[in-house]
Design a protein that fits this description.
293 residues; mainly alpha; Serine Threonine Protein Phosphatase 5, Tetratricopeptide repeat; 69% helix; 0% strand; globular
């Protein structure tokens, strides 16, 4: 006798219950994923509000200006539209320019002027070619005055700028990029971003063996870095570092030692030069006194 499917009332209820279970599971996991990001957003906005209050209360000075510029950069990185990003970037740029009029030798003002100009270049594409030169100049000034600030931030940013900018029409330079990324790692090897940037540069130009060595060091120091850089202010950075570390590991797994061919580009970071900050989480002010001199 041919078997036939008989409809039973519990069939519908069973599938509805199953669908509800799956929905709840997804909702809880998405909520757990989104909660840290909301905490980080709240943290950045609170820092921005506090920095604005300090500058408005008649206590504008280079230190407060640099704090405001840093907060503007972090907030601009989370902006949902070009107008908001441009407004925050201009606020940070203006604060730094005022600070440099008071003290031209204040390294954080040079540093965050370059950072906020980078945010502005993401919006004003046609002006980006002119901004890149100024960004280079400001990062170089910060490097001379305080190369260790923000975990070798000036060297790190110069390396990324030379790596992603066009060679013919802008300041792009493969050799300079390698030099500054290497220097950033030497100055602050404990900072995961410096190790990751160098590893990505090595993979980009086919130096697989050297990239493996850097990633091996990164893996060995990973747990120490997690203990050192913890808290809400580092949550966005860890999301970025973890994803990029995994991407590097995946690429290196597919490459054999025989394929090590210096000069061959096997990996490219998909960024336009004026948008180089987009694929790099901002060097968050880890604690304000770090850059206050």
């Amino acid at each position: 006798m041919k078997a036939t499917f008989k409809y039973r009332p519990w069939n519908k209820g069973f599938w509805q219950g199953w669908a509800l279970t799956v929905f709840c599971w997804v909702f809880l996991h998405v909520s757990a994923w989104a909660a840290p990001r909301q905490d980080y957003k709240n943290y950045v906005l609170a820092q921005l509000q506090n920095a604005r209050q300090m500058c408005r209360q008649g206590s504008f000075n280079p230190t407060n200006a640099a704090i405001l510029a840093c907060a503007c950069y972090d907030a601009a990185d989370m902006a949902t539209n070009k107008q908001e990003r441009a407004s925050l970037a201009r606020e940070g740029v203006e604060a730094c320019r005022k600070a440099l009029k008071i003290n031209p030798q204040y390294a954080p003002a040079h540093y965050y002027l370059g950072m906020d100009l980078g945010q502005l270049a993401r919006v004003e594409v046609w002006s980006a070619l002119f901004m890149v030169k100024e960004m280079e100049r400001e990062f170089k000034a910060a490097s001379v005055l305080d190369p260790l600030m923000d975990y070798a931030g000036p060297e790190r940013n110069l390396g990324l700028l030379y790596q992603t900018a066009p060679r013919i029409t802008s300041v792009g330079n493969r050799h300079k990029a390698r030099v500054f990324l290497e220097k950033a790692r030497q100055l602050a090897p404990q900072y995961p971003e410096n190790q990751i940037n160098l590893a990505e540069n090595l993979v980009k130009y086919g130096e697989i063996s050297n990239a493996r060595k850097v990633c091996q060091i990164l893996s060995q120091e990973w747990s120490q870095a997690q203990a050192r850089f913890q808290g809400v202010k580092w949550s966005a950075s860890w999301d970025d570092w973890t994803a990029r570390k995994a991407a590097l590991a995946k690429i290196l797994e597919t490459q054999s030692h025989e394929n090590d061919n210096p000069g061959a580009s096997s990996f490219r970071v998909p960024v336009f030069f004026c948008d180089w900050f987009l694929c790099r989480k901002p060097p968050i002010c880890p604690s304000w006194p770090v850059f206050v001199t």
